[in-house]
Design goal:
Layout (H helix, E strand, L loop, with lengths): L4 E7 L3 E7 L5 E8 L11 E2 L1 H17 L7 E8 L5 E3 L9 E2 L7 H8 L4 H8 L8 H11 L1 H6 L2 E3 L1 H10 L4 E3 H5 L4 E2 L4 E2 L1 H6 L9 E3 L4 E4 L2 H7 L6 E3 L2 E2 H8 L8 E5 L3 E7 L11 E4 L6 E7 L3 H11 L15 H12 L9 E3 L17 E3 L7 H25 L7 E4 L6 H11 L3 E4 L5 H13 L14 E5 L3 H30 L1
Parallel strand pairs: 1-5, 5-15, 9-12, 16-22, 22-23
Antiparallel strand pairs: 1-2, 2-3, 4-7, 6-8, 10-11, 13-14, 16-17, 17-19, 18-19, 20-21, 23-24
Helix pairs in contact: 1-6, 2-4, 10-15, 11-13, 12-13, 13-14
Length: 511
């Protein structure tokens, strides 16, 4: 009987995945508790932190019903979505909903920051370009629109930090990974960017203490233990942002290792000793769970989101669209892949631009729009579906090119996330990247596993991040030179499209 079980909570965008791992890092059981996102106005996106806490209570109770023995839980680890903004008063009460990562209400606040801090100075300090999705402009928005809330706020925290407080009663702590995507942290100094905050008249005393993700935040309080059905005093680690947890959970161990997370959005990330500061700020950077190394990242906005749109539009209208990472819609998933395979490399000259929600890396242009380019009467629905697969792969290749321009090279790529389950995408990415790829055995649990690794290190179950868990890979692929050359011809054309379409995108936006 394993008395070193690790319980994790992954506070995601659509729900909380509560997972139990054994001392080898293997998943024992899991429960997913969904919650709502609130959209008060166009471009606004909020969640109630009380829903996060209720999901922890519900999910833990469900695990106990499935057979979890509370006496066997050695430690609790936490992961949560990043870039949020939860104001808490001195008693830990939530003063406003979490303004989550997808919220874009703060363009005026970004302009306010731009007028006071040079674009490149901001990027070099924080490792991130100024963007409405980050925490800093949200803090300024609250200060401008709800000065009473700003005044009463004791700490601004992220989702996993709020859960940490609910579990331990310890208010006002965060980890380096979450802090580094608030755009309020100086990556070089590993501390809050005090000069930057002073320039913007932000009270630095409202920012939480900084810790490494594997540090123990405290023990489970009696009140929390009673609500969850767990043992009082069970250690709870500080935890990490979902991007940092996914990095370690993917199987990244050493500096230079890289992975491709393939979900609704998709990103390529690599572990580095120092931030990768691109001259045009196309990459962004955040701290690793160890609080020392950094993760450089480039993200495309619509990966599985574009695919799910294509399933709904081009698949069978009578079947539900595939939810990436779930088992629903498996038959339509197989059908889509089969149809795509019946079209040749290059989809008979049809191209798909997956800019259905604008684009981040490398374009950073919210006005970009999706498109099929190259239509003829000859093209079939199979070609359209194939072009969607390829367009998403090409978009990820543009991210890879940014790393290569910055002299960051990878020996192979680990694939995780729901999209990694597709064998066609496995093969396609291998040949488009011209790089060996390894597919994680459990591509949907990487974020939870990262939180478990940090928690395990915190209580001595694992020695360190390098030797903690040996990941299993379901499949491995080697690039085919002929296939790569064929894809390269089409990728060259794909790469030339955005610069020529950009003026039209601006005109469309002006309409």
């Amino acid at each position: 009987m394993d008395h070193n079980l690790i319980l994790t909570y992954d506070i995601g965008t659509t729900g909380n995945k509560c997972t139990v791992f054994n001392s080898l890092g293997q998943e024992v059981m899991a429960s997913i508790v969904p919650y709502e996102t609130i959209f008060p106005k166009p471009g606004w996106a909020e969640q109630d932190p009380q829903d996060f806490w209720q999901s922890v209570i519900t999910g833990t109770r469900q695990l106990i019903e499935k057979g979890l023995n509370p006496a066997q839980v050695a430690v609790i680890g936490i992961s949560g979505h990043m870039n949020g903004c939860i104001p808490l008063d001195e008693d830990g009460r939530v003063l406003y909903h979490n303004i989550i990562h997808s919220d874009s209400r703060t363009r005026p606040q970004c302009q306010f920051i731009e007028e006071r801090i040079d674009f490149h100075s901001f990027y070099n300090i924080t490792g991130n370009r100024l963007d409405p999705h980050y925490t800093l402009p949200k803090v300024i928005w609250l200060k401008e629109h709800h000065p009473d809330i700003y005044k009463r706020t004791r700490y601004f925290v992220n989702s996993k930090d709020y859960i940490s407080y609910c579990l331990t009663g310890r208010l006002g702590i965060t980890d380096y990974s979450d802090a580094s995507l608030t755009c309020m942290l100086d990556l070089t100094k590993r501390d809050w960017a005090y000069d930057l905050l002073q320039t913007l008249d932000i009270d630095q005393k409202k920012l939480p203490e900084l810790h490494c993700s594997h540090e123990v935040a405290g023990g489970l309080t009696r009140q929390a233990a009673d609500l969850l059905g767990l043992k009082e005093g069970t250690p709870v680690t500080v935890g990490g942002g979902d991007g940092a947890c996914a990095t370690r959970g993917s199987g990244v161990k050493d500096l230079g290792d890289a992975y491709n997370y393939f979900g609704s959005s998709a990103w390529i990330a690599t572990l580095n000793e120092h931030p990768v500061l691109d001259k045009t700020a196309r990459t962004f950077n955040f701290f690793d769970l160890n609080g020392r190394d950094t993760v450089a990242c480039g993200t495309i906005q619509s990966a599985a989101a574009s695919y799910n749109w294509a399933v709904e539009m081009l698949g069978s209208g009578s079947e539900n669209p595939l939810e990436c990472g779930e088992h629903t819609g498996q038959s339509i998933y197989d059908k889509m892949e089969s149809m795509a395979r019946s079209s040749p490399v290059g989809a008979n000259g049809l191209f798909f631009l997956p800019y259905l929600m604008g684009e981040r890396t490398p374009l950073w242009d919210p006005n970009t729009r999706g498109a099929f380019v190259g239509f003829t009467l000859y093209h079939s629905r199979n070609d359209m579906i194939r072009s969607v697969y390829e367009g998403i792969a090409y978009a990820l290749r543009t991210v890879l090119d940014v790393f290569r321009e910055n002299k960051v090279s990878f020996h192979d790529m680990i694939l995780i996330g729901g999209g990694a389950k597709s064998r066609l995408w496995n093969e396609m990415l291998c040949n488009v990247f011209n790089m060996p790829v390894r597919v994680h055995q459990s591509p949907g649990v990487a974020t939870s596993l990262g939180a478990a690794i940090a928690a395990g290190i915190g209580v001595g179950i694992f020695k360190d991040f390098t030797s903690s868990v040996q990941p299993d890979f379901a499949r491995q692929y080697q690039p085919d030179e002929k296939q790569h050359d064929e894809y390269l011809k089409y990728y060259t054309v794909y790469s030339s499209m955005y610069p020529q379409l950009k003026p039209l995108y601006q005109e469309i936006a002006n309409l």
